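Appendix C: a fully annotated inverse folding record. The material below is reproduced so that readers can follow the format used throughout the book. The structure is listed first as C-alpha cells, followed by the designed sequence.
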C-alpha cells in the first residue's frame, strides 16, 4: 500500500469541481505529461501552456460522453480488476505532490492494498481495441502511469480498461527510472522555462489552426529560424515529389486496367472504383439568383500554408 499519509499533498474531501479545476492550472498532472512530450492526440504542449497561463479557457468536459462514462464506470473497472486479480483496492482522497517539485501532481484512481502500487482505470470504445492487443498500452497511458510512480515513489502500477463495454483487460507496468528521468526533465523545462516566464513552447502539427494572419507586412525573423525553414523546404519538396510519383504510378495502373474496375497479377489484386454524388452548383445558383445568393455569403479563411524561398 502506498504510504499516502507521509506524502505531501492536499485532501480532496469537500473540494468542489471548480476548486479542483482551478488547482489544475497551477500544476502538471499525469494526463498532461503525454501532451508535453508530444504523445497526446487530443492536446499539444502549446495548448497546455496556454491553459496554464490563462490564455485559453480550461474547458469543463465532464459532460462529454466519453469523460462522463469514464467517470461513472471507474468504480466498475476498479471492482472488476479486484475481482479478477484477487487484489484489494482503495480510493485515495488526496492529490499527491512530487517531493521536490510540488507543481508535479498525481490524482490516483486507486491504491493497491498490500503492494507498493496503484491502479489506473480506463474505458474506451471498440474502435480502440487494437491499442490494447497483446502487451500493447497506449503511449499516453504508459506515461501517465510512470508519472504516478514518479510522484508517489511506487515501484509498480496497474492499468485496467473496459473496451467497448464488453472486453476487459488489465496489465502491470514496472517502474522505468530512465523514462521517469526524461519525464521529470521535460516537466521542469516546460514549467520553469515556459509557463513561469511566459515563453510559449514550440508549436506542433496539432496547433496548425491556432494561428491567423493578422498583419499583412514583413517582420525580421531570428537567424535561428534558418534551420527550421531549411527543414520545411525539404519536407515540402519531399512531399511534392512523392505525391507526383504516386499520381504517375496510379495513372500507369489505370492505363493497364483499360476501363475495367479490377485486375490481377500472379502477386497482386488491384481494384479501381469511382463514385458519383450530387454537389451544389454555386455558380449556376448565383447566376439564377444573384440577389438571394449575396445575402447568404460569408468570408471563410483558408490557410494556404507557409511558402519559403531562398533570398538572393
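Designed amino acids, in order:
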Amino acid at each position: 500500500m502506498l504510504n499516502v499519509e507521509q506524502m505531501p499533498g492536499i485532501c480532496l474531501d469537500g473540494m468542489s469541481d471548480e476548486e479542483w479545476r482551478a488547482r489544475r492550472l497551477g500544476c502538471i498532472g499525469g494526463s498532461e505529461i503525454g501532451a508535453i512530450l508530444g504523445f497526446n492526440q487530443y492536446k499539444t504542449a502549446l495548448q497546455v501552456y496556454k491553459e496554464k497561463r490563462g490564455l485559453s479557457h480550461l474547458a469543463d468536459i465532464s459532460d462529454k460522453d466519453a469523460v462522463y462514462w469514464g467517470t461513472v464506470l471507474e468504480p466498475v473497472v476498479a471492482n472488476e480488476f479486484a475481482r479478477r486479480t484477487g487484489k484489494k483496492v482503495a480510493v485515495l482522497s488526496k492529490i499527491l505532490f512530487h517531493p521536490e517539485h510540488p507543481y508535479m501532481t498525481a490524482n490516483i484512481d486507486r491504491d493497491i492494498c498490500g503492494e507498493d502500487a496503484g491502479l489506473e482505470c480506463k474505458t474506451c470504445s471498440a474502435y480502440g481495441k487494437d491499442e490494447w492487443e497483446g502487451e500493447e498500452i497506449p503511449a499516453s497511458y504508459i506515461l501517465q502511469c510512470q508519472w504516478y510512480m514518479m510522484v508517489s515513489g511506487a515501484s509498480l502500477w496497474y492499468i485496467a480498461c473496459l473496451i467497448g463495454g464488453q472486453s476487459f483487460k488489465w496489465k502491470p507496468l514496472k517502474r522505468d527510472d530512465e523514462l521517469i528521468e526524461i519525464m521529470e526533465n521535460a516537466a521542469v523545462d516546460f514549467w520553469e522555462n515556459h509557463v513561469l516566464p511566459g515563453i510559449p513552447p514550440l508549436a506542433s502539427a496539432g496547433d496548425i489552426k491556432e494561428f491567423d494572419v493578422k498583419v499583412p507586412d514583413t517582420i525580421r525573423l531570428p537567424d535561428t529560424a534558418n534551420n527550421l525553414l531549411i527543414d520545411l523546404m525539404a519536407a515540402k519538396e519531399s512531399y511534392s515529389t512523392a505525391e507526383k510519383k504516386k499520381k504517375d504510378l496510379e495513372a500507369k495502373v489505370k492505363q493497364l486496367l483499360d476501363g475495367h474496375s479490377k485486375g490481377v497479377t500472379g502477386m497482386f489484386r488491384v481494384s479501381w472504383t469511382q463514385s458519383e454524388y450530387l454537389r451544389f452548383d454555386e455558380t449556376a445558383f448565383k447566376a439564377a439568383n444573384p440577389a438571394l445568393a449575396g445575402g447568404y455569403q460569408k468570408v471563410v479563411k483558408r490557410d494556404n500554408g507557409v511558402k519559403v524561398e531562398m533570398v538572393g
